Amino acid sequence: MARPALAPTPPIAPKTAPAEGDVGARSGGDAGGARSTLRERFESLQERRGRRGIPEGIRITKVGLWFVLLTVVVAAAATNTGNNALYLVLACMLALLLVSGVVSRLNLQRLTVTVDSPGDLFARRPFHLPFTITNDSRRWSRWLLLFSVAVKGPARLVPHLPAGKSARGHLELLLPKRGRHRIEFAHFSSLFPIGLFRKGMRYRLGLELLVFPELFAAGAIEIQPSGLAGDESANRAGWGHELHALRSYRAGDDPRAIHWKKSAQTGALVFMERASEESRRLSIVFDNATGRLADAAAENRFEHLVSEAATAAVDHLARGFEVELISREGTLAYGTGGRHRQAILEQLAVIGPRPRQRAELASADPATRSLRLSFKADRA
Amino acid sequence: MTYAREKRLLLGFAALLAPLPLPLNQMLEWSVLLLYEIAVVLFLVRAARGADAVAGADDSGRWLSNRALNLLGLGYLPVLVLDIAANGRIQTLRPVLHLALFGVLAKLWSLREEKQKWQTWMGIFFLFLAAMATSVHPSVVLYLVVFLGLTVVLMLRFVYLHVLASFGHRDASPPELPVRRFLAGAILATLVLAVPLFALLPRIRSPYIMAAGGGGGQLEARAGFSDAMSLDLIGRIRDNREIAMRLNFTGATAPPGAMRFKAATYDIWEGRTWRRSERARTLRRNPKEDVFHLAPSATNPRSASVQIFLEPLRSNSLILPMESVSVGLDLAAIDLDRGGAIFLKGMPGAVLEYRVELGATEISLAPPPLAPLSSAPPLPTSNVPAGSPTTSAAPAGPAPSAPGLPSRVAGSLVAPDPPVENALDLAGVTPRIAELAAGWAGAGTPLERARRIERHLLFEYGYTLEFIGRGGNQPIENFLFVAKRGHCEYFASAMVLLLRSQGIPARLVTGFYGAEYTAWERSWVVRQSNAHAWVEGYVPEKGWIVFDPTPPVGRPSSEPASLLGTAREAWEFVLFRWDRYVISFDFYDQVGIFFRVRSYLDQFMRQLFAATDRTPKRLASEPAPAAPTGTGADASSAATGRWRNRWLWAVVAAFVVAAIGAALVLRRREPWSATRVYVRLRAALAGSGLMPPAWLGPLALAEFAERRLPEAGPATARLIAGYLRESFAGEASSADGIESLREDLAEVERLANRALAESRRANRRGGRQKRKTIR
């Protein structure tokens, strides 16, 4: 059974729940109820089929091709000469083909895949997807399993998986785009036993991954400084009015900030550091009312803006700032900490272009630092 | 061990094994094989020691440079040309095999890329094919199995190493891959599957057998039955226990242990050997019955039949029981010699199968002699120097008592004017022999005189298998007057001459005497050691009749039971089936299998439907079984039939139950989990008529069940809680937990079924009430 450990998909609830009477009416056995039962059975069948594995086709290898060609040659020789010893060889070759095909199929059956949480995922940043594969067969081992979550994606080799045992490992993946990614199936393939065929089997995984936007280097983003000083001092050195700390004078310090009284008392020059009164808030204003994105270049620009917003948010939150995110989706008020970071990144992960609007987006606090990200501005 | 080294070793072992049967099949000289094997062993030693032990050698690189390979090729070229010139006209395969051996060796010693390893494998496979195609011995199955196993191991290891290499593992020792059990199972499955495939593969041409020696080698002559007839031949054959014929009798017949099988007749004595009788006539096959009628059935009514499998002998005789009336053989015509023996155009190369209808008594197919007989014995007047055909003296004159009878000189190769009755040829009859014959025969009818001669030989002479070819030019005289012992050919030859000296036409007949039953074969077999010689003499009262002057102790008999004998029988059983069902398996055998299977099916269906009246339409036209007469035997038979039918039904029922059980077991193989229990819960609720909507989530489903089926509410709640824990909290249920959930599920299913039944009852009550109201 492939059971998602991350982002399980709960049963989808209807937008409007039917009245109790409706349910009662259905229980009487009307057509809707019959359809429901059929659908349910079909879903159950699909689920079982997914758990058992769905064959993913068969591909003959180069060795297999040569083997088949040799079989054809032996068949021609046997038929042409009537030599029964050649027929014996031919029968063995055909039997080996059949056994190889059946074994390669059985080798991929009765497997269970469990995937653990991979943590925060960012676009274009490699991550590890931990998995556990269990051989549910009570008798037969599994050999030379290649596990992947995409048909042509990176694979991990499990050389031998004894009956009833599990193997742990991780896949190194990279997702190029932000947003919701659904990994529907776990794919297994194998060349076992003698490499004539590469058979594939997929198991339903139903894994949903939320990929955050790509992060850039923080210094590459230009933040608009705050227009006015804040009324609250920040807990760091700056050029405000309030005293931040006293320390020894170092060469290069401004002599005007020497605390002469303390210097006289201590006999050494004491420097008076003042607290910064610059605001420790960042308002990210992302105007996603861009209209339909015309081409790939426009899409890339949009993605770039999303990444800039994410980078700024992550960077400033890491530096202790309170960050606000304003977009056409709504406003995430100022906040700090991991949960706020998660909320901003989740919103940016799924944010998309909206229809154009005339009204400008504005921060609730115009005095704070702000990052205005607009498609028009960017284009300009 | 590096990957490259392991691959080299595997290829080396395959190369070592592949050509081994070729010298046994006489397709290759042992010396050539020895040279090849030495080269392969050197390769294996070098591969096993690896690069570390061999200074300057690269384990992964090639061991022979291009220049060395070119030089080797140039060196081999004249050898190849000579080989083709010497052997090519005789046998094309031999030079090709030499070339293949050289190619495999050159490839082995110059392996570098993966592709070259597969090319080497192709060369090895060609050698294997050649060895298989030229083998006829059953032991080739062992070779096939070993090679198959080696192939599977080699390909499996190649794949494993290839996959490891593609994941970056190159030179480290590969992890152990425990596949022994799998390999044994896969090879066994392949062989089991190959048997029906072999039987079903289409046969277009008749089986071709490349016998041993097809490559031009020398075959050792083995002592066995042949058309050549010398005095000491059968004595040598007596030690040969090989099977010459297999017989499957149908119907009442004479005891096969005392049956005579006639092969050939001989009527001209050439000193030490006999010359075979000439062809007398040709028989055409009866197109209506597809048989050759040998004798009119009125004279010898048919009583039995026998199916004969004649092994290839060095003889073109069609060996038949003396009682034969007709023979069914897939030929247009057959020839009969003057003695009534049948011969074919050529020697059969494989087992010849034919069916013979048997009469009640032995008959000879020979025509009557050409000249009238006299009751008085002829006296030879000259001493014929037998044994020196080219220097024979003047021909013996006609016997005084039979002036009209022709005669001929012993060994004369010039045919006298026809018609000549060779059965009265007096070559080899010396005055002493004639005198002895006259003394033994006395007076009376030809039959009485012949019987007296036979009795004298039977009771006054001894039997021995020792070589008694002494006697110079007069071996029969030596036998009669000096040695007084010998084996059947001496007795028969002597009697022929003795009878002829008395004017009684006689011939020597060879064939087999007696058959023995083997439990392994479940049939009668005639061995080479059953070869025998006897006499056919013509007496006017009865025509051609058999005289067997060999003492009973010297007649062929079956071997006493022993362990060795049983082992031999078992081996013969295998050998015959190998020859019959593998080497000479053909299209007609396939048709036979098809009809046999159809017959079994028909029989099965007939028995299956016999107990009931539901006879299939196909069988409806068949005559109805006779009505029971009410006797005890009939009643018992009917009861047995009923029981048999019941047993058949029981077998069918057991099969169905087993199939259902297997399906259930297969279903049960899916491990139980809370999710599976949840799915079953939904199905149970849907099946009970409550019909929870598909969109209903688990918690909503619990509420739904609580409302609609209150007594099942607690169990449903526990089930759903378990499902939620497993699916959304990642808590796997323990075995006990699963067991508890399954009990809850059973409870819910029971309650749901009860609710369904009550609902149906209520519906029925409601329907009745409604109908009453309407009325």
Q: Could you explain the architecture of this structure?
A:
The complex is a heterodimer of chains A (380) and B (775). In chain A, strands 2, 4, 6, 7, 9 and 10 form a six-stranded mixed sheet that branches. Chain A has a four-stranded mixed sheet with strand order 1-3-5-8, with no helix packed on it. In chain A, strands 15-14-13-16 form a four-stranded mixed sheet. In chain A, α3 (62-81) runs antiparallel to α4 (84-106) and α6 (296-318) packs antiparallel against α7 (337-350). Chain A has helices at residues 20-27, 31-52, 62-81, 84-106, 260-266, 296-318, 337-350, 375-379; strands at residues 3-4, 54-60, 111-115, 121-122, 127-135, 142-148, 156-161, 166-173, 179-190, 197-212, 237-248, 270-275, 281-287, 322-327, 330-335, 369-374. In chain A, α6 (296-318) links the parallel β13 and β14 (322-327). With 380 residues, chain A is an alpha/beta fold. Chain B is of the alpha+beta class and 775 residues long. Chain B is 48% helix and 13% strand. Chain B has 21 helices and 20 strands. In chain B, the strands form four sheets. In chain B, strands 1, 3, 4, 9, 16, 19 and 20 form a seven-stranded antiparallel sheet that branches. In chain B, strands 6-10-13-7-2-18-17 form a seven-stranded antiparallel sheet, with no helix packed on it. In chain B, α1 (3-17) runs antiparallel to α7 (140-166) and α7 (140-166) packs across α8. Chain B starts with a helix and ends with a helix. Mean pLDDT of chain B is 78; it is low at 52-58, 212-222, 372-416 and 615-635. The chains are: A alpha/beta (380), B alpha+beta (775).
